[in-house]
Write a sequence for this structure.
């Protein structure tokens, strides 16, 4: 009888020992700050497209995609060809900020994709290799251009792990950053959601900017994500984003769009700001623009280009392999209309996933844009949030609205804390359930599906599949996710989620 071999070519028993040994050594030697490795105890050894093979021989459908880095999936042929071409040419691989044919081709392709109104009057700054480096550079740029220091950012944002980026993300105290409400339906900060919630969020921002007693001086810039990723997959309403553009333009405040995760077709447009027709003053880009390799840039209006030579630098800003891989990726997405396909396929996936809300009380909300999808898990036995009617009334009065609505007025039927106005409240959202989300993530892994978690309380299961995912693969992803949710809903404790005692309190699972 033939000996079954693993993905590494070893007999299965030996492969399992290799797998376990690597994981044990990682746990013993690497930092406690490691993240994905804790929730995903796998040892990838081979990958192609959507599929990863582990050292133990198991195969997984990868809907993490390097946190959105792999627009074309693992080891796409056009990316590998571009990398090999540079390697075989004998070209230098790292050249700081010197001009090269590889860089020239990358910038040309990048500018070809930029939103109308920016490409013809743009400058690009290559930064260190991570998106957070681009965020820091953008802050430095707008502060130099305006002579001001403050930054406006939004609750739930994530812009990186360096000091300035963390401050804008709400992860560190910084008096130079003022945080504003980001509109959303399901957990609307004003308790109303929908267009009215977005309007109230916009008015809040306008008041902060125009009230001389707000305590917020005119800032150097405003940074926002067109879809909040780590914040829980929350798309910005198009009207609200256009309002932010008008508010900032009227006050000469540069608008910075963080397209690090949303860019290169992920949301159904090449850049997510294009859904609303907005042209920002500055764009920070990373992840997919490097075609799976480290690359980060800031693209901005040429009139902001006032900083002195050397004002921002970085040793690894001249990564030629990343630029070649990035050029190939950008061109492939553009030439094959993968952004449009992401929009269509993402809509179908969202429609099918929303059935989980009807079938399982632990699924509170399903939302997203394109192939950036989130499923929020909630405690099905937790108390609904209270005080919603009072907040609706206060919000209405603040907005100058009447206390009742006409019979023909539309009420929201999905999502937010309250679907109607006073006198017609819907049940509020239940508490987030990070334990259930973690249990679903583990159940997905058992079924050969890799997903990420996010959201304010890490209660959102996130899907970031490559844009090259096929219809058949999308069906397999949805089937495995639905099966995982069903298994956790039936028996949370069996998947590591806490039990609820008869008195309503939780106790740890075995």
């Amino acid at each position: 009888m033939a000996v079954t071999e693993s993905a590494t070519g070893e007999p299965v028993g030996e492969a399992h020992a290799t797998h376990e040994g690597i994981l044990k050594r990682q746990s013993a030697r690497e930092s406690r700050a490691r993240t994905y490795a804790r929730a995903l105890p796998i040892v990838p050894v081979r990958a192609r497209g959507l599929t990863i093979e582990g050292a133990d021989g198991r195969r997984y459908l990868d809907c993490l995609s390097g946190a959105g880095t792999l627009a074309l999936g693992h080891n796409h042929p056009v990316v590998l060809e571009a990398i090999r071409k540079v390697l075989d040419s004998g070209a230098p691989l790292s050249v700081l900020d010197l001009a090269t044919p590889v860089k020239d081709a990358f910038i040309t392709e990048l500018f070809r994709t930029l939103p109308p109104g920016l490409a013809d009057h743009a400058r690009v700054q290559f930064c260190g290799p991570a998106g957070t480096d681009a965020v820091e550079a953008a802050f430095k740029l707008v502060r130099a251009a305006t002579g001001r220091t403050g930054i406006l950012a939004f609750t739930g944002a994530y812009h990186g792990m360096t000091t300035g980026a963390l401050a804008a993300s709400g992860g560190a105290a910084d008096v130079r950053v003022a945080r504003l409400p980001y509109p959303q339906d399901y957990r609307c900060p004003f308790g109303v959601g929908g267009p009215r919630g977005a309007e109230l969020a916009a008015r809040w921002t306008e008041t902060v900017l125009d009230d001389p007693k707000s305590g917020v001086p005119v800032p150097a810039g405003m940074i926002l994500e067109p879809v909040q990723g780590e914040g829980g997959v929350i798309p910005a309403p198009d009207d609200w984003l256009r309002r932010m553009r008008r508010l900032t333009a009227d006050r000469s405040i540069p608008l910075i769009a963080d397209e690090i995760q949303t860019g290169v077709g992920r949301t159904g447009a090449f850049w997510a700001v294009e859904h609303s027709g907005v042209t920002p003053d500055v764009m920070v880009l990373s992840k997919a623009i490097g075609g799976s390799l480290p690359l980060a840039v800031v693209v901005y209006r040429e009139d902001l280009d006032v900083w002195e030579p050397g004002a921002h630098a970085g040793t690894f800003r001249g990564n030629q392999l990343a630029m070649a891989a990035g050029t190939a990726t950008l061109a492939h997405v553009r030439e094959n209309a993968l952004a449009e396909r992401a929009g269509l396929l993402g809509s179908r996936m969202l429609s099918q996933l929303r059935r989980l809300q009807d079938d399982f009380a632990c699924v509170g909300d399903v939302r997203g844009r394109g192939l950036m999808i989130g499923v929020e898990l909630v405690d099905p036995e937790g108390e609904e949030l209270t005080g919603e009617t009072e907040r609706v009334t206060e919000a209405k009065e603040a907005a100058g609205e009447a206390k009742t609505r006409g019979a023909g007025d539309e009420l929201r039927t999905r999502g937010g804390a309250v679907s109607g106005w006073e006198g017609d409240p819907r049940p509020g959202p239940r508490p987030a359930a990070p334990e259930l989300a973690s249990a679903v993530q583990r159940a997905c892994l058992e079924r050969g599906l890799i997903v990420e978690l996010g959201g304010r309380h890490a209660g959102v299961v996130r899907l970031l599949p490559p844009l090259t995912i096929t219809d058949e693969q999308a069906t397999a992803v949805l089937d495995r996710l639905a099966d995982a949710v069903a298994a956790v809903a039936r028996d949370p404790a069996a998947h590591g989620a806490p039990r609820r005692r008869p008195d309503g309190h939780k106790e740890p699972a075995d």
In short: Confidence is low (pLDDT under 50) at residues 386-426. The chain is about 35% helix and 15% strand.
